[in-house]
Amino acid sequence: MKLKYSLIALALLSMGAAQAVTSSSPLLPSDAATATAAGNAVYVSGSSALRFSLAAGFLEMCAPGTITVFGNTNGAAPGNNVRAYACTLATSIPGSFVAGTNVVFNKYDAGGSINGIQPLVLNTKLNYLSYTSCSPTGFVRTGAFDFTKVDYACAQGNSVVPQMGVSDVEATTIQNKTNLAAGVTAVSTTGLSGGKHSVAMGGVAVNLGLYRALQTAQGLTQDDAVADAPSIPLAWLTTLESGQVSPFGGTGFNALIPDDGTSTGSGNQAVMFCSRGNGSGTKAMHNAFLLSAPCSGVGLSGAGDNLASAPATEQGAGDWVLTENSSTGNVISCMQAANAAATASSPPQTSQGLNEFWAIGMVGAENDPAAGTSTDAGWRFVKVSGTYPNQANGQSGAYPMTYENFMYWPTTGLSTGIKAFANWLQTSAVTPIAISHATDVGTRNGILAIADITNPAYAGVTQYIARTTRGGSSCRPQVLTQ
What we know:
Helices cover 24% and strands 22% of the residues. By secondary structure, it is of the alpha/beta class. It has a domain at 201-396: Periplasmic binding protein-like II (D-Maltodextrin-Binding Protein, domain 2, 3-Layer(aba) Sandwich). The strands form three sheets. Strands 1, 2, 3, 4, 5, 6, 7, 8, 10, 11, 12, 13, 15 and 16 form a 14-stranded mixed sheet that branches. A two-stranded parallel ribbon has the order 9-14. Strands 17-18 form a two-stranded antiparallel sheet. Strand 10 (271-276), helix 8 (281-291) and strand 11 form a beta-alpha-beta unit. It is globular, with a radius of gyration of 22 Å.
């Protein structure tokens, strides 16, 4: 067996899969460009909710001190749609890149889970980062390595067909007409390999202003402890997701917070809904749970399908405003905009004269609001009917919106090494150990590994192992399996 692995390594070296390592310094954009030109790059697309858990698995294989994070150019918030991680491997990836190789892990987030499937079948090129056009972000690293922060902002100038994709839900659900964007039709997935990848939770988040108002209404201490997180009932979330909220009818935020009759009270707040668009696995997850769509013949249609006549800038009738975002990062920016509106010298209002101070968004629970720190993102997760979206509640099945994620890659057309990488990324990258080592709090709280809880290798990290399953279908109830 030892000889077998040695021969594999020699074969890969002869193909140029390895590069000499000259230092243990963080790789530069020029190093990423060289690695890319040498074929030492992988291209993943799909679910933006999984962007950090995938990164955590890959970075476990990297030599400390060599990691560099790249993001698409986007002003003060680079990496909202495309990210990449370059490093020198400390550990070989079985059948693929060997230790000592400089490798670039590219992840395309925009468009969501549908891009984890359709580009693989249709050979559609996506616009990844070009490492010949990068600028330092100025972020200074101290302490533990935070892989959610971007070192270089780069232009998107590398059009590539992704080699593998990830989806928050299985292909049949994300490609159901309920979840497809206008003009998009389902494609056959018979030519794809893959399967279940990990388990994640669909979170409900609100901007900080709404979070504090909910805490006040529910008699909770205004801190950031999970015990003091306010709760929103399922029935109201279904009303929101189906586009039937209105402060004029008493089903807006004034259904959750008593209206004090003032100009800034709950009755004068438009429901700012920061949603994902169709094609998003996060939205499909919430649709399946909250609307029973497409799981039931009597399920409800989503908010985007029930838009009232309104000005082009308002998807709603001025009492609620839907913003459909292309990525998780943009949902967060949407909630942050509500914070800015509340403190603006000339606060914006809808056509109905309502304030735009409170926003609610749907994001994967693996995102980290960095509450109470110097990088506080200005939003928080809330409880859903009394249950908070964290790994303890997801593991036990207590948190209801817990779903299996899936990974796919073309059965034919990829090199042997890239196929091996894809198989490793699906089955062996996101382990309980990798999750436990992630410096990002959100990844540790919101993602669970699919692993045997009795495996002695995971004895110290069993809290990161999923104990529930939906049996490969997002329309099945979850059951405990171990």
